[in-house]
Design goal:
By secondary structure, the chain is α/β, with parallel strands linked by helices. The longest helix has 18 residues. 40% of the residues are buried. The structure holds 6-O-phosphono-beta-D-glucopyranose (BG6) and magnesium ion. 6-O-phosphono-beta-D-glucopyranose (BG6) binds next to helix 3.
């Protein structure tokens, strides 16, 4: 049982619907390489950093050198950054702004904990950068999700103990990262995609401040 003192949000797939653009970028690269890019691979690129995503796309048997892999990752990023130029506040996912407003009204600090090195420009395009007290991105840590570093860095910057932070995540690797950091997690998606989250909702529109308090207070690990 712990008091809620901070909320840490993943960005892609939680606050904004950029997953589609990541997927298009990888699909274009895979098409150029003449390799398949399946639905399962697309799911496994969620939450993990760019190089880890590339390894998912290439599969275990590829023969690319580290230098070639850097070039492939940069090529995908060029496609992705071109695509996200069209982002506007209309790409905010349902309930995101409302929940941020509710947390702000209750003086609960908010952070971004994202694997993406493009998180800062995406927040600017969405017009919500000022709503976060800390923004931790792929530039700020070495080990990506499922390592807890991203969320522990966010907690440290907010000066809140990990046990008092609640994470919002749409990827399995992100839920694992939250748990590895000693934090509870709300999973955005379906039970198949975020099975271990303490609470699962299909969007942030389904959850409110009172639910978060109850979730943090629930000490027996039950899923309310
Ligand atoms: C995560 C996405 O938020 O960021 C992943 O879910 C992506 O799919 C990762 O690979 C890294 O993003 P970027 O923008 O640094 O290539
Ligand atoms: Mg995500």
């Amino acid at each position: 049982m712990a008091q809620l003192k901070a909320a840490i949000f993943d960005l892609d797939g939680v606050i904004v619907s950029t997953d589609h653009y990541h997927r298009l970028g990888w699909a274009r690269l895979a098409g150029e390489l003449g390799i398949p890019f399946t639905e399962d691979q697309a799911r496994r690129t969620r939450g993990v950093d760019r190089m880890a995503s590339l390894k998912v796309v290439l599969g275990p048997d590829h023969r690319f050198s580290p230098a070639e892999m850097n070039e492939l990752a940069a090529r995908k990023n060029a496609y992705y950054t071109e695509l996200i130029r069209q982002i506007t506040p209309a790409d905010l996912l349902p309930g995101a702004v409302e929940l941020l407003t509710e947390l702000e009204a209750h003086a609960i600090p908010r952070a971004i904990g994202s694997a993406s090195k493009n998180a800062a420009p995406v927040l600017e395009l969405l017009g919500i950068a000022h709503r976060f007290d800390a923004v931790v991105t792929g530039h700020d840590f070495e080990r990506g999700k499922p390592a807890p570093d991203v969320f522990l860095t966010a907690a440290r910057r907010l000066r809140v103990p990990p046990a008092n932070c609640l994470v919002f995540e749409d990827a399995e690797a992100g839920i694992q990262a939250a748990h590895a950091g000693g934090m509870k997690a709300v999973g955005i998606g379906r039970p198949e995609t975020v099975p271990d989250a303490e609470r699962i909702v299909s969007s942030l529109a389904e959850i409110h401040y009172a639910d978060l308090i109850a979730l943090m207070m629930n000490s027996n690990g039950e899923k309310p």
